[in-house]
């Protein structure tokens, strides 16, 4: 039997960000492989007119959880949603809920974050730094806590080319940034943001780096591990190939290409597209939680969950594979025939944006107006190009991440765990196999 699955079998687990992409897959795998776990507490905020119960029911009724219900029919009873807003002091949590969490939690997985690249620095600091700090304070009051697993990103130090599994100091101490957020107004923060974040490309990666420093400085005696995934994409195998429910990052790019909206991007064809399927990140996370709790390493360990060093895929190969996939199964109502051009030059990128993106959008909007419909293509195109421009920093560079801790973790796992737990795409027969495995189902998942 899997030692990792058995380990979680009698635990009370707290997950923040369980309604997000990674959090849902983590929750699903825990329930499917350790159906006897005591409870999963999830911190949820009411949203879009839905109560938390409605939000949780919607998640558990989704396709992602179909398999779980076979091994864990009472899945609804295993999830205990707790109303919480991580932007608020003490997470705006009820006293009784807080006491129950403090008394019972064995393992914490801290996934919640703002992943918006263009978030206002105040919001990004609040969620990615201050909320982490508050959670550490809570964790220090949990007598039964065995492990605290924090999600960071492989790009938290993207201002460096070679990244080791260590925490790199930020130029300004997190405490000073947190203090300044209290008395500076939003306009001044906006003005000084470029100076503060220096060579980080956005507030997301910068505040994730600050979050890591907070963990290091304020983690005290807690047993902590940090997971640093690169670009998380649809599932490779579990619970089924190609699961994804958002259009963030590569998924959005792939769909926009398949639909014929996006035909040219500013990307270096030979740069590595460091994508990691979500199920592999979750596998590593669960293994790290088990190792941290059972082996209690002397210092905080950081685990890179990346593919570039082991099984690199370049953006040009990615483009070819995506086109081949859509040739096999095209979208029914595509805007144009899919194509994928790469340019590294900003002038030619502007030219292609005008010619292949904006001009057809204007023509199409004219057609909509002439046929009595509301124009919408230019609005959609502007949003798409804005999103793609935020990814340019990442599509034009390559990074090298070391992975000694992930390799050590694998060697510590039982033969059965090594058999059932795929930690990296190295296990894929080759890199193309991995891309096509999630590209085709991705197209099916998001069809329409
Ligand atoms: N996806 C990637 O490519 C990637 C790559 C590297 C690292 N990571 C890291 O992995 C973690 C999870 O990422 P993800 O892709 O799953 O993000 P996601 O889909 O955007 O999910 C974010 C989660 O945080 C929750 N959250 C945000 N603000 C909150 C608040 N004020 N109070 C309570 N909950 C709040 C969201 O709740 P709502 O549903 O209520 O909004 C959601 O559950 C993050 O730490 C991220 O930095 C992600």
TrEMBL record:
It catalyses: a long-chain fatty acyl-CoA + 2 NADPH + 2 H(+) = a long-chain primary fatty alcohol + 2 NADP(+) + CoA; octadecanoyl-CoA + 2 NADPH + 2 H(+) = octadecan-1-ol + 2 NADP(+) + CoA; 20-methylheneicosanoyl-CoA + 2 NADPH + 2 H(+) = 20-methylheneicosan-1-ol + 2 NADP(+) + CoA; hexacosanoyl-CoA + 2 NADPH + 2 H(+) = hexacosan-1-ol + 2 NADP(+) + CoA. One of its GO terms (biological process) is long-chain fatty-acyl-CoA metabolic process. GO terms for cellular component: peroxisomal membrane. GO terms for molecular function: alcohol-forming long-chain fatty acyl-CoA reductase activity; alcohol-forming very long-chain fatty acyl-CoA reductase activity. It holds the Pfam family Sterile. CDD domains: FAR-N_SDR_e (cd05236), FAR_C (cd09071). It is found in: Peroxisome membrane. Its EC number is 1.2.1.84. Residues 357-419 form the Fatty acyl-CoA reductase C-terminal domain. It is a single-pass membrane protein. SUPFAM superfamilies: NAD(P)-binding Rossmann-fold domains. Residues 15-284 form the Thioester reductase (TE) domain. Keywords: Lipid biosynthesis, Lipid metabolism, Membrane, NADP, Oxidoreductase, Peroxisome, Transmembrane, Transmembrane helix. Catalyzes the reduction of fatty acyl-CoA to fatty alcohols. Belongs to the fatty acyl-CoA reductase family. This is Fatty acyl-CoA reductase. The gene is Far2.
